[in-house]
Amino acid sequence: MDETLAEDLRQAVGALVRAVRTVDTMPGGAAAILGYLDRDGPRTTAELAQRRLVSHQSAAKSVKELSAAGLIVSEPHPDDRRKILLRISPAGRERLCHERTRRTASLHNAIDDTLTLAEQQQLQDALPLLTRLTAHLAGNRFVPHAGPWDRDQGPR
């Protein structure tokens, strides 16, 4: 198979992600940091920058804004007191849940308005494939939630 499928998929997924994010009420970098802290637990600014593939300075700016808004809290790192560990606060978790709910509702409405029931089933059937591709591209560092699929266990 030629590279057309890969390019078409890249464009389609990119456009879908950008369209879903139009309902966001906070900057993407801030939402990403809250998401990482929620999924991965406490992290340093450097670890968040590395995970987001941005500069330390860029991550620090988002961290400062999130901290000022009370969405994350900092504490001394238990292994190295020179470092600061960041943790999502209850308010941050609530805000993140709100963002995720908005995105999910927007996508749910689009699916219901646009796709037939048979097409919705095709989309459901494709989720394990997308999950496996994502895990492979991420070097199997993580497997995103994408329905009834787990990289290590197969379909659930």
Provide a count of the helices: 6
- Indicate the overall shape: globular
Task: Give the SSE string.
Answer: HHHHEEHHEE
Which class of secondary structure composition applies to the elements?
mainly alpha
Distance between the termini: 30 Å
What is the helix content?
55-70%
Beta-strand level of the residues, as a percent range? 5-15%
Strand ordering within the main sheet: 1-2
In total, how many beta strands? 4
Radius of gyration: 18 Å
Main traits of this protein?
mainly alpha; 156 residues
What is shown here, in short?
This protein has 156 residues and is mainly alpha-helical.
Explain this structure to me?
The chain starts with a helix and ends with a strand. Strand 1 (72-76) and strand 2 (84-88) form a beta hairpin. Residues 146-156 have low confidence and may be disordered. It contains six helices and four strands; from the N terminus they run ααααββααββ. Helices cover 62% and strands 9% of the residues. Helix 2 (28-40) crosses helix 5 (90-114) and helix 3 packs across helix 4 (56-68). The strands form two sheets. It has a two-stranded antiparallel ribbon. The chain is mainly alpha-helical and 156 residues long.
Helices and strands in order:
Layout: H1 4-20, H2 28-40, H3 45-52, H4 56-68, E1 72-76, E2 84-88, H5 90-114, H6 117-137, E3 149-150, E4 154-155
Antiparallel strand pairs: 1-2, 3-4
Helix pairs in contact: 2-5, 3-4
